[in-house]
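REQUEST
  id: r-88c1
  op: predict_structure
  target: AraC family transcriptional regulator
  payload:
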Amino acid sequence: MPTRVHLPAAVAPLALERLHSLVENRTVYNLEGFELNVFETHRAAHRVPLRLEGLALTTMLRGKKVMHLPGREAFDYLPGESVVVDKDELMEIDFPEACLCQPTQCLAVTIAPDTIRHTVDLLNERYPKAEPHHAWAIEGPEYAHLTNTPELTDTLGRLVAVSRTSDINKDVLAGFTLQELLVRLMQTQARQLIFHDYARHLTTHRFAAVVGYIKDHLSENLTIDKLSALACMSKATFFRVFKREFGITPVEYIIRERLGEAKRLLRHPLASVAEVCLRAGFNNLSYFQALFKKYEGVTPGAYKKQLAA
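RESPONSE
  id: r-88c1
  status: 200
  body:
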């Protein structure tokens, strides 16, 4: 269940360092192994060109862009989303809504190739994935446009915070956070690959088969015994490797899927909260209401009223 989330840390007012386009203002933080850029646009513009000098994770903070990338259809780029951009890849960007009173703001972390290679090699050597042919790697264009996970957003927020400090150890602290960011990025791409595109991988990836089974039996009793057997793993190994690859446990994944189904069912005007609870796979109404409020910020009943308003 994808969730739109925003960086918790506010970005400081920007210095007016102009790009060649004369459209975007930029603040730059240079640290060992990466460069952190904050771009801010104060007026509407069309097809503004931009290249970054290394592989970059870009994240929308405020406003809206329309991205034009080589070989891909143009797409809206909104807060709570990220785009992975290859080194020297030409971006052409529209800013349809930017103005002084509502600037468009975007974060870009440009990462040195050696930093990426070291992290990927370390993961593949010490923490291999469940399938040997699915090695750790930053995926290509098909999985470049992402909805941020809470884990990715939290790590980005901490990287911004440490980059802006005057701590004498900031490069060391930022280095550890950058490694975590790369792991969170690959986990986020893995979720998109398997959680949202599982049907393409049912015969080649054991976790795709597990995800398919969960989606098909969401209202039933789903046990780790059953799921680990489907994956041909012991319970302990299944639980550990699933969390390593996707950044969440199988139990948390089931909860998020059930809450997503509950939100879908609550859109029906005649569906009661108790009925939705059971149909989404929760067998305890109080537990369902508590979980829903924890993840969505409101009770199921309040969510239903918001839909009807």
